[in-house]
Amino acid sequence: MAGQMTYGKKQWEKYDVQMRKIIPVMHNAMKELVTIIDADTTAFSDYMAALRLPKNTPEEVSMKQTAMEAGLKKAIDVPMSLARNVNKVWETAKELASLVNIGAKSDFQVGIKCLQTGFMGAYWNVTINMEGIKDEVYRKRMLEEVEQYRRIAEIECQEIFKILQQRQ
């Protein structure tokens, strides 16, 4: 929205070329994130179904544990996808922060906080679901990756707000 409040406006037309590059990136990211958020609502269902499997024999116990692990991995993969997609947007968001119509500053700030909040929701979903994962290699790799994205999100949000603060 903040990009649209800049692009095509006479006062900001010197940024039109850059805005034509930035707006599609942000718009496409938004569409992808909405799709991932929708997928997240059902991602945990495989795990819940696995919990209902019988465990009367050693074979059933093994099948149930395998299904539970697979369900948890799916419940982790969806928010990890969101975390990865948010991570791709920070550089474009910083560029937009330096160009955006200053009258849309508060809207842009709210959007960035929403992006950060969405990321943190994904981060917490990954970390909480990781508690049930037995595959240590997968667990270590995913926790390191999501923690790296958390640090990046924190730094990038601060940088974006600093850029906006310096603009008057």
From TrEMBL:
Cited InterPro entries: Cyclodeamin/CycHdrlase, Formintransfe-cycloase-like_sf
Pfam families for the chain: FTCD_C
Cyclodeaminase/cyclohydrolase domain mapped to chain residues: 1-148
Top-rank taxon: Eukaryota
Protein name according to UniProt: Formimidoyltransferase-cyclodeaminase-like
Lineage: Eukaryota, Metazoa, Ecdysozoa, Arthropoda, Chelicerata
